[in-house]
Amino acid sequence: MATILVHIALVAYTAGAAAFLTWLVRPAPGFARAGRLLLLVGVVVHFAAFGVSLGVAGAGLGVKAWKGGELFSLLAAVTVAGYLLLDFRYELSVAGAFVGPFTVAIMVPAHLVHSDARAIAPEVSHSIALFVHVGASAIGTAVLALSFGLSVLYLASERQMKEKRPGRLFARLPSLDLLDRAGYRLAVWGFVFLSLAIATGSLVSREATGSPFPLAPKQGFAILAWALFASLIQARLVAGWRGRRVAMLVVAGFVLLIGTYVGLLSAAPALQGTAA
């Protein structure tokens, strides 16, 4: 049942992405409204699928195995939910043209490309830190993905202004100041959740392997991304950095963070325990 619901959500996400992309070409308000509605339907069905999965697993039984696609699926749902809240606050229809395709891009490999389930170490199968780590990772990455999208839009809009050749995209973009403020606020919240994810990840690793700091590429990418976002926030608060420089740091930080998720496609030592 959960799989069927996820596939329904994927269809809704795909249709929503198509509606927003059509709106970029033909800016009729109906396309943007349809895109929002389809993404809303998709995310409601998607979270219903998570509810069904949790119900099947049963309360208190713990998690015995995981698939890399499950975290990507959660990331997609949280990203869409975050975008809808952002759109409600700032009316950023143009960001839907980024969020829709981004969601489909991570949902397709997550659920149409099958991979074997990997056992989770018994030491952490009931760990609260594990559940907090997964949730914080998904929320933090989703928020930073939205910040990344706004930063890309900022850079594109600024370039069109400098070249004095505004195109169709420029006409649909909000002000540079709004993109800068919203992107920075999202980066700050993403940094908070990323910090929580790294801290709880160390606890999970210590429970599973006895080492709080495992040496693996994905942890390295996460720490580098964390350091870059910390530098970004400090530069904003202390040196007053704004605009292009902040946007470029957000883009670089998110690219580093993607390296963490690429690492999840391989075995995860922190979850497999000392027997791995």
* Rg (CA only): 19 Å
Number of discrete helical segments: 10
Which structural class best describes the helix and strand composition? mainly alpha
Q: What number is the mean pLDDT? A: 80
Largest β sheet strand count, sense and barrel closure: 2 strands, antiparallel
Number of strands: 2
Query: Numbering strands along the chain, what is their spatial order in the largest sheet?
Result: 1-2
Output the helix-strand order: HHEHHEHHHHHH
Poorly predicted sequence stretches spanning 5 or more consecutive residues:
57-65, 267-276
Taken from the alpha-carbon principal axes, the silhouette is: flat
Question: How helix-rich are the residues, as a percent range?
Answer: over 70%
